[in-house]
TrEMBL record:
Keyword Phosphoprotein: yes
Entry keyword annotation includes Phosphoprotein: yes
One GO cellular component term: protein-DNA complex
Domain Response regulatory: start-end pairs: 9-127
Keyword annotations: DNA-binding, Phosphoprotein, Two-component regulatory system
Gene3D superfamilies noted in UniProt: 3.40.50.2300
Descriptive protein name: Two-component system response regulator
GO biological process: regulation of DNA-templated transcription
Length: 131
């Protein structure tokens, strides 16, 4: 098993298939594994089942069924998941949305369309202390 395979994955919660595939490609090219959830219910199920805790969560705000704001609260209340970094990745760029996400427990907020190198730098910043 390589070091990459033993590292926890990055969870990507994104309902836009094109964006989720771009994120998966970008992250895997950097050597990270990914877990994909395409809506809020799938993401909640991954959290509740907790079979594999991610090293970081990239989370869209506008999702079917359960939005990103509620998912942040679910993650923060789940034992063992409380300190997983959450980076919101969304087209919602109003200050109130950013404040709401950060107040809910998100660690960072990136507005779409995002710059790939900036996103990767932010991910690296949160994962630098991880094995």
């Amino acid at each position: 098993m390589t070091a990459t395979q033993s590292m926890p994955p990055i969870m990507v919660v994104e309902d836009d298939d094109h964006i989720s595939q771009i994120l998966k490609f970008m992250l895997e090219r950097q050597g990270w594994r990914t877990l994909l959830a395409t809506d809020g219910l799938a993401a909640r199920k991954l959290v509740e089942e907790g079979q594999e805790r991610p090293a970081l969560i990239l989370l869209d705000v506008m999702l079917p069924y359960i939005d990103g704001f509620e998912l942040v609260q679910i993650v923060r209340k789940t034992p063992g998941w409380e300190n997983i970094p959450i980076v919101m990745l969304t087209a919602k760029n109003m200050e109130r949305d950013i404040v709401r996400a950060l107040d809910a427990g998100a660690n960072d907020y990136i507005v779409k369309p995002f710059q790939p190198n900036e996103l990767l730098a932010r991910v690296r910043r949160f994962l630098k202390d991880k094995p």
